[in-house]
Write the structure tokens for this entry.
Amino acid sequence: MRKRLFIFIVLGISLFCDVFHVAAAPKTDSRQPTAIFDAQRAFAILEKQCDFGPRPPGSAAHRQTQRYLFTELEKYADNVELQPCQYEVDGVVLRLNNILAEFGAKVVTGVEPIRETLLLAAHWDTRPFADRDPKPENQDKPILGANDGASGVAVLLEIARVLSLHPPPRRIVIVLFDGEDYGRSVDDMFIGSRFFAQNLGKWRPDYGILLDMVGDKDLSLPIERYSWEANREFTQAIWNRASTLGLAPFQQRLGAAILDDHVPLIKVGIPMVNIIDFTYPYWHTVEDTVDKCSPKSLEIVATLVMSIIYDGL
Ligand SMILES: [Zn+2]
């Protein structure tokens, strides 16, 4: 994730999309299973990723993490695929892989399927250098990315387990993006999500939610501005749902505009909301470690996402 450097993206798009039924409250006939998202389990997935060490593209830890995530998703999803993409930076060819998983292909007896696809996304790579670290000697070191990387993946992997036990009424695609945090400039960031947006094929969603930096103990989630500017009704519906669910870290105010993996998808017409805590003091420093995160924060974000999966908007 990277804060906007230049206002060069004009997001005056105001797409009207009739798949959203904006409502202040979930339907009373909620289909959502209760108390099955295991926050401790999700936190263990965050820790497991950090146990590999920093996970920048090209590293051994990056390869090990890819194998781990793919193997885990294979346990739960109807279909898991790698989406390889090569990208050259300063003469170095990066071999990146988005990891894609599909749920909801099976017909559930007695449940009328809703013909739409909800995309849930996070990035699984971590930044190769701690360029925001206050100590100059740390600024070329890779970050551990407990929050910036592992947290969103942890929520989605635990949700994947829930989806395998309780098949969703709509098609769910989980995509773990690679190469989000790679470059020193934004030209060499969001590599996996830009590739995905240009190669949607059968993965094309109707709408989606991106999770980034959702593990901070001191969780603060105002409305991300690019999401809101592109699709106000959709974005507002999500924050309204958070209010209805009593999820206090979601704040009914506009926050910063943050360049992130949702922007390439917005640019190709997919309504995407970025749920992100951009007040994290350890962002892009070597202090982005497990002790700064909490299971409770993962659970709060998962509660909202699960509500949307099972009850729609
Ligand atoms: Zn980042």
Remarks:
- Strands lie at 2-3, 79-89, 92-103, 114-123, 170-177, 207-212, 221-223, 250-254, 258-259, 272-276.
- The chain has one domain: 30-311.
- The helical segments are 39-51, 60-76, 146-165, 191-198, 225-230, 232-244, 262-267, 295-311.
